[in-house]
Design goal:
Blueprint lengths: L1 H42 L13 H10 L10 E3 L2 E4 L10 E4 L7 E7 L5 E4 L8 E3 L10 E12 L5 E13 L2
Parallel strand pairs: 2-8
Antiparallel strand pairs: 1-3, 3-6, 4-5, 4-7, 7-8
Length: 175
């Protein structure tokens, strides 16, 4: 019986050592994961606005000049989506396109017929807060209804296109 007790004791002792090893490994893994997550959070820069006052205005301006400009990711569209014309060569009765004051970029837009892909209107550049109305198409169209695509081009400070916004537009020519 003494040999069975010895073997049973060794098995129990071996099981305890095995469980302790598993617990130590789990604790070490948890510690490594915690440290990795903590170091990643500490590496992220804080992105907050800076209060500008008379003491730091020059430094803030220098920092702004050095920063790369990132194109704006959104654009508020203010326009009507059906333009009515009494004739193909007349100004629209209701066409209205505005570059809203809440936007940050100047824009221009093109109107393209969906069926022929012909550009039928090219706008001038619209600075923020300006608008167009009484629009006359560059191409005279016969009476009918035309499905079109209006493509806004958002511009950078040098008037280069940095992104586009595409919308559907219906043009109705009465006569």
């Amino acid at each position: 019986m003494s040999k069975q007790n010895e073997l049973g004791g060794k098995k129990k002792g071996g099981n305890i050592v095995f469980i302790i090893c598993i617990v130590v490994i789990v604790i070490l893994l948890a510690l490594v994961i915690y440290l990795l997550m903590r170091s990643k959070k500490g590496d992220e820069p804080i992105n907050r606005n800076i209060v500008v006052n008379s003491e730091n205005v020059e430094q803030v301006l220098e920092n702004l000049e050095r920063e790369e400009r990132v194109p704006v990711g959104s654009y508020e569209v203010t326009m009507n989506t059906t333009w009515n014309f009494s004739r193909g060569d007349a100004p629209s009765d209701n066409a209205y396109v505005e570059n809203a004051k809440s936007n940050t970029n100047s824009v221009y837009f093109d109107v393209i017929r969906s069926d022929t892909e012909e550009t039928i209107y090219e706008s001038p550049i619209l600075p923020v807060g300006s608008y167009l109305e009484d629009i006359t198409l560059d191409t005279i169209l016969p009476a009918g209804t035309y499905d079109c695509l209006l493509i806004y081009h958002l511009l950078d400070d040098e008037n280069n296109s940095i992104s586009t916004v595409k919308l559907t537009l219906t043009i109705v020519i009465a006569q």
